[in-house]
Every structure is written in C-alpha cells, then in structure tokens.
C-alpha cells in the first residue's frame, strides 16, 4: 500500500492535462499519480498513453460526475491518503509535505486543503476554496479569502493551520480509511458541494477538517463547467438544498429550509436585473429537482450516524448575505466572529 496517491479526475480535459500534468509529475515527490477518466469523448486517453506513460490510467465506463467518478476510482487505489486534484490545478514545489505532515500528526483530521490561489491572478485567492471554507446558518458557503465574488489578495493573513467547516474538492487531501468508512461522496450530488456534504458528515463522527497555510497551489477554476453556465447555477442551488435537508438537526430543519426557499427566490432578482433568464430557470429547476429527490434524501438522513458529543461544527451564526450586501463586510476578517461557532446536535 502506498503512503499517498495523487488522483486526478478527468472529463474532456485534454487541454488541462497537457498544461498542468507536467507540474504534477515534476512535484509528485515519488508518489504515484493516477488519472481517472470519466468516459471522456476527447483525446484525453490517447494523450495520457502517448505522452504520460508514467501516469496510472483508470478508465471509467461512464461520466458519473465528480462524486461518482471519485467513488469508483478510489475503490481501485490502495493508499493511506489520497489527494483529489482537479485537472486545472498547477502545483508548486513542496506542496505535498506540509499538508501530509499535518494529517500524519493529527489523527482526528479526516481532510485538509492547501491555500488555493488564482492561476490567472496569482497574488489573489481563487473562488473555489481560497483558504478554507465555512457555511452560515442558512447553508451558504464562503471562504477565508473569498466572500461571494470578492477575492482577497494573499499577503499572509491566512498562513495558519486551523480547522474549518469544509475543504475544497479542487485540491483535497483525505484520509483513505475515513473516506471509505463514510461511503465516499453522495452520488446524488453528481458535482458541486459534494465535498461540503462529506465534510459535514465526517465531522458528525468526531473527525476534523483543516486548511494548511504553508502549502499553495494555483487553480484556473471552472475548467469543466464555467461559473456563468446555468447548469452550475442549477447544481449549486439544488445541491445546497439537498445538503441542508440531509444534515440539519430536526429542530432546525423546517425553519431553515423555509427561509432558504424565500432567499433563493429573492436571489433570482439579481439574474432578472441582468437579463439572465436561463439562470432563473435553473433555480426553478433546482427546487423541483430537490422536491423530486426527497424520498432518497429521507433515506440518507435516516442513515446518518448520530453526532458525537465532542463535535463542534464551526457554523457562522449570522447571515453571510446580510453581512456582505447590507453591512458591506467584504472580507472574512470583517465578519462578526464575536458570534461564536455553534454545535448543531442531531
């Protein structure tokens, strides 16, 4: 069994493999690199065979998204730790060791991420993960270094190592036994927010999720599905509702979901003002898709393990939307962190 395996999930990402796989191989530090191909229809597989024979190629028979693709791939890889790495990430010398050392010396740490900077604006954080993620009490995700579309410059303010609520799937170090113990990602999500759902579930078991400030990678972002694509809007809205329904404690479930439905409706006004009709349609589709999956979600909710008494989930008790848009708090440090993190018992 390997100590660590680097696993890249690919779907029609030939251009990204050509651009970024050389940096991964150059800085793999002797650890094996796998590419799990999600039934690509471009020339990704031929490229890997011809130009990167040192890469271990896993060919999956269909595209089951991020969640299903990684679940299938990691079943075939024996290692103590995995790095789940997007194909559009440029790694840096020594990027593995600070995170791996944290994992090895923190037994209750199930997952960890490095700092994620923007590939195109290299002094600034990137949208998908930045320096570690949180959610507010309505389930809206945000990061140290990124609130909505405001991306902070990285001047060392997040160079610490600390627990967070979620770590990004763009570059996610995970403890293999915990990943398999929890059944991996929920394949209902297909793509987007499945890592947040998984991080929530592992914390229910008493594990921790961290960010490591001493490791840096650069992420293009939106490589498979651009941020402006209505399909991304659909997945984000649908999956956020599914995540809340699965994981919220019973005494918070109805009120929180009702408020989310109202807020999601109001948020469509932003798309209305800019004429983004397809995004409005995506929000409507997301809600109906959520209702259509309630039977499956109820089953998953009943199967969740009881939350341990020692678990304190770092949930922001205020509204990130209100803080950002009404109070003008545009950075993580400006948020009202005097409101202490809360525990959500089951």
UniProtKB/TrEMBL annotation:
Keywords: Glycosyltransferase, Transferase
Tree of life domain: Bacteria
Keyword Thylakoid annotated: no
Entry-linked SUPFAM superfamilies: Nucleotide-diphospho-sugar transferases (SSF53448)
UniProt entry tagged with the keyword GTP-binding: no
Pfam family, one: Glycos_transf_2
Sequence ranges assigned to domain Glycosyltransferase 2-like in this UniProt record: 6-125
InterPro entries to which the protein is assigned, alphabetical: Glyco_trans_2-like, Nucleotide-diphossugar_trans
Family assignment from sequence similarity: Belongs to the glycosyltransferase 2 family.
Annotated protein name in UniProt: Glycosyltransferase family 2 protein
């Amino acid at each position: 069994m390997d100590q660590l395996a680097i696993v890249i999930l690919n779907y029609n990402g030939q251009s990204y493999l050509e651009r970024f796989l050389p940096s991964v191989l150059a800085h793999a530090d002797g650890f094996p690199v796998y590419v799990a191909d999600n039934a690509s229809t471009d020339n990704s597989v031929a490229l890997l065979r011809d130009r990167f024979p040192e890469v271990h190629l896993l060919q999956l028979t269909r595209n089951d998204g991020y969640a299903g693709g990684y679940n299938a791939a990691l079943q075939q890889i024996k290692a103590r730790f995995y790095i789940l790495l997007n194909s559009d990430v440029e790694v840096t010398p020594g990027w593995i060791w600070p995170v791996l050392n944290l994992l090895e010396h923190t037994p209750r740490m199930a997952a960890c991420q490095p700092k994620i900077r923007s590939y195109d604006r290299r002094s600034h954080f990137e949208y998908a993960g930045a320096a570690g993620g949180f959610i507010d009490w309505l389930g809206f995700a945000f990061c140290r270094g990124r609130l909505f579309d405001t991306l902070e410059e990285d001047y060392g303010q997040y160079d610490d190592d600390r627990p967070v609520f979620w770590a990004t799937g763009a570059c996610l170090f995970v403890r293999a036994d915990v990943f398999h113990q929890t059944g991996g990602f929920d394949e209902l999500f297909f793509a987007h927010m499945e890592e947040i759902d998984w991080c929530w579930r592992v914390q229910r078991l008493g594990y921790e999720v961290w960010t490591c400030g001493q490791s840096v990678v650069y992420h293009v972002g939106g490589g498979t599905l651009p941020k402006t694509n209505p399909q991304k809007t659909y997945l984000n809205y649908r999956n956020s509702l599914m995540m809340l329904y699965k994981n919220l404690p019973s005494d918070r479930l109805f009120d929180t979901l009702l408020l989310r439905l109202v807020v999601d409706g109001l948020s469509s006004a932003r798309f209305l003002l800019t004429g983004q009709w397809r995004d409005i349609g995506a929000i409507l589709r997301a809600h109906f898709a959520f209702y259509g999956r309630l039977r499956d979600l109820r089953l998953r909710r009943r199967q969740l393990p009881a939350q341990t008494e020692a678990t304190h989930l770092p949930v922001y008790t205020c509204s990130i939307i209100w803080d950002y848009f009404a109070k003008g708090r545009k950075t993580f440090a400006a948020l009202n962190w005097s409101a202490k993190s809360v525990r959500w018992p089951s």
